[in-house]
Structure formats: C-alpha cells, structure tokens
Amino acid sequence: MEEELLRGATEPLLAWYRENKRDLPWRKERSFYSVLLSELMLQQTRVEAVKDRYTRFLERFPTAQSLAAASEDEVLKNWEGLGYYSRARNLWKAAKILAERGEPQTWVGVRALPGVGDYTAGAISSIALGLKEPAVDGNVLRILTRLFADGRNIDDAGTKKYFSDLLRKVFPPETGDFTEALMELGAIVCVPNGPPTCGACPWSGVCRAHLAGREAEFPVRSEKKARRIEMLDVFVLRHADLYAVRKRGEGLLAGLWEFPNSPSQLAPSGENQQLAPSEGNQQLAPSEEGGRGVGATFGEVLATKSAKHIFTHVEWRMTGYLIEAKERDPQFAWVSAGELRAHYAIPSAFRAFLAWLEE
Ligand code: ADE
Predict the structure, then answer these.
(1) Cβ of residue 177 lying under 6 Å from some atom of ligand 1
(2) Hey, CA dihedral for 349, 350, 352, 355, is it positive or negative?
(3) Which of 137, 270, 299, 354 lies 20 to 30 Å from 192 when distance is taken between CA atoms?
C-alpha cells in the first residue's frame, strides 16, 4: 500500500539527507523572513543562481522591517537579473504585512501572503513553523511517481492533491528536513533531465520504477505548448554621454526600466509564430525594413546587434540599434551609464545591449 511504502521510506530519506545535503546559505538561518525570502527567490530559479543573491539580499535587507522601509525601485534593483520580478514586489508587500501584523502561525496565514502559493506555503510552514504541511512541485511529483511507478498525469490538479494528502499522513516530526530532503532527492539524485543516479538513492531498494527498470517512464505529463516568438527592435539612444530609458508599464517586466523598443514589423521565421503584441508600448519607429527607417527617426545608427531572451511563455528575438540621437526626446529619462548601472533595474533580456554603454 502506498502509505506504508512512503512511511517506511521516510527515515532512510532523512538519514540520507543529513549525510548528503548541500551546504546552502538558507539552510543556516531559519527566521520566518529569511525562509520567505529564500523560497520566493527559489521559485522558478535554480539553486546555483540564487545562492549569492540570497546572501546579498539578506545583507542589504536583513529584516522584514528593513525591506518594508525600502522604495520599490530599490527592491527591484536588488532583484535585478533574477527575473520574475512580481516575486520581488510580492516579497516587499509581504514584508510590510510582517512588519505591521507580525508573522503568521498557520498554513492558511502563510498562504495568504502575496506571492505565496500552495507549494511555497507548504515549504515555509514546514521549514519555518514546524508544521506538517507538504510542498509538492514538479520535483517532488517526479520522485513520488517513480517511487510508486504511478502513471497519473502530473499536470492534472488532482495529482498534486493526491500526493499532498499522502505526504501529510506520513510527515515525521522533522518537518523542515523532510520537505527539504524531498526537494534534495529531486535535485541531486532523481534529476529532471537525464537519467537518475539510482545507485546513490536511499530508495533504490523500494522504488517501484527502479526495480522494474522503468525510471524513464515517469513522470507522465501533458505535452508542452510552444513558446510564442516576438520580434523587437531595441533602440540604445545616446546623446552626449546620456542614454534614453523608460519605465515599463503593466504586463511583462512591469515597473522595470528598459531601452526604448517596439515590435518589429519583420515576420518571424518558422511556423506557429505571430507578431508581438505591443505590451502597452508605443510604436517608436517605422521598421518595415528591419529598422532601416530608424536612422531617419532617431539619428545615426552606429552599430546593430541581435540577441534573444527566453521567458516561460515567450521568446524575444531582438535587433538592437546603437544610435547617436539627434536630440533628447523628452518622453524618455536620460541618464549616464554609471547611474543606469547603479540605480536602474534593467531586465536581463536587455543585457546584451548594456555592453554598448560607455562610462
Ligand atoms: N527549492 C525550493 N525551496 C528549496 C529549498 N529550501 N532548498 C533547496 N531547493 C529549494
């Protein structure tokens, strides 16, 4: 029976975790705020990318109070390059709630914080509050569907609930370690890409998929949708050592700063693609000829380069134009390269064009 198998697998997993866990900065300090910070940073972002950024963020904003007192621009600047910036804004809002009302003590209270879904609520509740609440994401579904050789589709909402209920029944007293041990097994042994290293797995003697040599058959999931491709012309306008930037409005990367840009009229190559919706941005220059009209609009084109950036559901294919602007168009903020780097949060999508900036 599933419950008995999982109960029996719990202690070996904890023992394996104590021996093999990675030395990660958020595994040292365990305040509610620091767990909230690490779990929000780790949403959609790899552990390796988070490590240094977590430490740096915590040095800059050591408490919920210090974060609550910061400006939105400061918070976004300290999140620069991590992507999914709504997490930074949610963290900031959550910090204000913690500073005003104190820390929640229940799963429901944690789940009500901005940016906290079921998975993150389970992680925070079990790690920071000692509650027997599971955190089930794709990694945990992978190890459990393999353990049970369970062919349920992990993209069905019911699957997550089924495994959450099962975990709740066997939760050991070491709640945080159990949650992180499940994550750890999925991260370093029962890995998502490529074959799992079953020789190093504490469950190799009981894992039904492994015993049947069927590890690769699990998890079962729906086919992914292809990303939408958007073509963008990006204008790095320079005028007497100052550069044009503007703040993005609603939508993707809201509130961050960007170089002026507009959807390119060039048809993307390949199938299943469409032109960029404007995301609320104004059309800045005629670009039927792939930006050749740009010179006439803004000034002399000094260089061009292409770059691409992949988001979860969208891929940007960009053509950048470095331009000696004829004038300082007042619709933009004009700032020096130094100021831009120090104070303006620019999404990584535009990083390729930052190399053009001269200090
Ligand atoms: N992914 C999400 N939360 C994590 C944690 N606490 N440790 C390692 N990886 C994680």
Answers:
(1) no
(2) negative
(3) 270
